[in-house]
Amino acid sequence: MATLTASKKPSQAILEEYCSSNSNTTSGTTSPSSLESPTAEIDKDPLAQQKGVQLPYPFLPTCLAKHDSHFIERRARQFPADLKLPLLPPESACAVIDAQDKDTPDSWVTRDSRLVRLTGKHPFNAEARIRDLYTAGFITPTNLFFVRNHGAVPKVDFERAEKWELKVHGLCANPTTFTLANLRTRFRVVTLPITLVCAGNRRKEQNVVAKSLGFSWGAGGVSTALFTGVYLADLLEYVRPTKGAKHVVFEGSDDLPNGPYGTSQLLSWARNKSKGMMLAWAMNGLPLEPDHGFPLRLVVPSQIGGRSVKWLARIELSPIESQHHLHFHDNKVLPTTLTAEQARAEKHWWYDPRYLIRELSVNSAIAYPNHDEILDTSLHAPGSTYALRGYAYAGGGRRITRVEITLDEGSSWRLAQITYFEDAFREVEEEDFGVDPIYGVLGTNEQGENCFCWSFWECEATMEELKGAGSIMVRAMDESLAVQPRDMYWNPTGMMNNWWFKVCIHDLGDGQLRFEHPTMAGTQPGGWMQRLKDQGLDPAYPRFAKGEDAKAPTVLEVSRPAALTIVMTNPDVKRTISREELESQEGKEKAWFVVNGEVYEGLGFLEKHPGGAPSIQLVAGEDATDDFLAIHSPAAKQQLADFHIGTLVSSPSSPPSTSEKETDDLGPGGTFLHAKKWKKIELIKLGVVSHNAKIFRFALDHDEQALGLPTGMHVYVRIRRRGEGEGEIVQRAYTPLSDAQNTKGFLDFLIKIYRPCPEFPLGGRMSVEFDRLVVGDEIEVKGPVGHFEWLGHRTAQIHGHSMPIDEIGFVCGGSGVTPILQVVRAIFNETSSEDAEIPDVWVLDVNRNVDDILCREDFERLDEVHGSGRLKMHHSLTGKDVPNDWKYSTGRPSEEMLRAHLPAPGENKLVCICGPTTMEQTVKTLLSKIGWDLEKQIVLF
Ligand SMILES: Nc1nc2c(c(=O)[nH]1)N[C@H]1C(S)=C(S)[C@@H](COP(=O)(O)O)O[C@H]1N2
Ligand SMILES: [Mo]
């Protein structure tokens, strides 16, 4: 990542600052050609060498290609006519930037104005009108292909694309970083037609029933393209996953508030070529457009679009699923019993693996007749028919085996004809297609009977039938006999909506019929659902039967839980309580606390409280409004009324105590930390370093404010637990990763996440809480704490006594490296002054696998810039996957290792240890054996 030429984006920049070592982990087993320039590989490209073929180099998306007119049309290479494959649509693009994109970060991306924007100007989320989509045919022209961007499009120009690196690492024997040219030349190039569908397709229908958490897709969140690239399975075979690898984690390079977009696949699925997962650089025979992931994306057929990571930069073989924010907080179908507000407030639902969406579900929609289409039956001869048409798709490679139409709301059905254009590709013989310079080979052989594309259906209805009907409804069935339901399964994210697609017919008289679709995409008005709702009817249970219109329609009872109005007081409670009473001995003993000006008694609930008694005792006699409201579910809030004992009244003698933030606000000159008071800090940025390490950036009070943390000291961090054990406070000392002396306005923590596992069922409780934080969340810090301080000028202070230091050794493990980095950085920073004298520094860093080593490059850089070899850095790996070219130690710290890689014991020498407790204890024992004075020369951080 460090080699990318584009301007650094914040989240990437955070990672680069600390973790660019990751980009160099290409191990020795990589073939040497990866070091050559990518252009050299293009020259060797067997495809490029075929004579007489014009390759689209520079391989640029239409959006970035040079052009002289305001309108560009490029046509991809068509397949030979005798293969009888569907024609590729012309790709056209307007060369002028849409006015709506002008003042956005996407002001360099050209877009087709026919796309309907669903989320205002930015980010860009758009779909084609269903009629445009359907008439464009089996293969959707790229410019009409739906777009789902969570943020700004990463700006990738030709230069950056040429140097694009796909880093593949983690639990594999041959971790490798690939350029695009590497992919093209090392693996077989394949092409497959694939339909992508956003899990939110048809969400507008759900949003009319009750607003979900997502924006309003119409039925156009689906499109099909020919994707060209290499099989993910081939790449996995090349890097050789090792024991323990269960998931393949993918990360894009977009810059989103909670870190880049990322998600994962089960390794067993990813390895299976018949599932068709590809790393693709081309779409419809031309380079991917920026909106679709230029220069490289993952394409996962038959699963929801959200799994097809765009702008793909990193793949990690991991023992656990993706830990990316959007892997958990997107693409879920949560139970219908939850309201959107509950889902937003109660985080644990999002971590329940049962609610993850993988494969698409069976779905269909109607394109003919269109919304507001008018059919004048009087112009048609009696007995003539209208062709109802639309699309149908299913997931998991399953074929659509049935599409049925009803004109009487499900009393009777008729079968539609289904056309599977995808079969044309399947029927082409491998030899007949050969190896195309652009498309490579057709992947349909490996695909077997799996279906990756939508099908089109058609069904005739006579004019008379349509005149006599109140509606047209369609449902499809797939080969597992799953069938679309009549009723909507409303859910908080509004995903996977697949109830029958229902079009209402209005008889306008004189033989004229007007058709009305359920909704119009985005904020466009129209559709029978909103119309019914406006009439006070429930759009989830419509009745269209002809003739029934005249009857007064019954208002159906809404079956969804209504948003709760929460009453947290007991109307019978009339007592008033003064602040003195609240803060009195009695108040403390009975655990009185205040929420919204009302006083509650916590005593009777101490034992039952899921967060344990201390969480209530901690706020005894205090105002707990913020904390209470922030961490409790609506259900818990409702319970509060039972504990209501009175209303707080303020007396003139006791001014309400001011909040911590105000009393501590020292202004830009003062430092942030307060030794006695907890101060809130807000998470403003989050970066994923690897499957078990993340960087969290928190804002201080002011941009120019320094933290106020002496070198070598720590801060206490406390977080209130959520989900299980809600409300309980977990607290631990941490050292920031950011340079505490020179960083202003924010601080970064690098947290190694210890998730629950069979050996440690609770995981690292603090790190688990960190893991759940999202941008905007607050935690609290207090400090500084610690008994060690580096004073500079070869002097340390230990328990208040200063001590001269000639040589200093550090032994660390995991994120124990961060306090050590603080001290080592401060030591080497002293060398910028002329007469600096610094001690010799030894660091021994013990980790399980190479990928677990944190801040490796920070140390290397310090050594390069300041140290002239005075930093003696050594590593040891305790895990089994030791790279072939590993030049350091293996195994847990031994006496021999400590002798070799730490200073010899003596006067003016010191060893600091920071890591997991068991490591600290072992090292301490060994050091005392070697002759170190445990009392005076060993510091445990
Ligand atoms: N890096 C990245 N990949 C991404 C997304 C994103 O926002 N960032 N959106 C996902 C979602 S939710 C969908 S539906 C598909 C949409 O792909 P498209 O925009 O090419 O149609 O991309 C997926 N891949
Ligand atoms: Mo999506």
From TrEMBL:
Binds 1 Mo-molybdopterin (Mo-MPT) cofactor per subunit. Keywords: Disulfide bond, FAD, Flavoprotein, Heme, Iron, Metal-binding, Molybdenum, Nitrate assimilation, Oxidoreductase. One of its GO terms (biological process) is nitric oxide biosynthetic process. Residues 676-791 form the FAD-binding FR-type domain. Pfam families: Cyt-b5, FAD_binding_6, Mo-co_dimer, NAD_binding_1, Oxidored_molyb. GO terms for molecular function: heme binding; molybdenum ion binding; molybdopterin cofactor binding; nitrate reductase (NADPH) activity; sulfite oxidase activity. It catalyses: nitrite + NADP(+) + H2O = nitrate + NADPH + H(+). Its cofactor is Mo-molybdopterin; heme; FAD. Mo-molybdopterin binds at residue 198. Its EC number is 1.7.1.3. PROSITE patterns: CYTOCHROME_B5_1, CYTOCHROME_B5_2, FAD_FR, MOLYBDOPTERIN_EUK. Residues 574-649 form the Cytochrome b5 heme-binding domain. Residues 19-40, 647-668 are annotated as: Disordered. Residues 20-39 have a biased composition (Low complexity). Belongs to the nitrate reductase family. PANTHER family: SULFITE OXIDASE, MITOCHONDRIAL (PTHR19372:SF7), SULFITE REDUCTASE (PTHR19372). Nitrate reductase is a key enzyme involved in the first step of nitrate assimilation in plants, fungi and bacteria. Homodimer. This is Nitrate reductase [NADPH]. It comes from Cyclocybe aegerita.
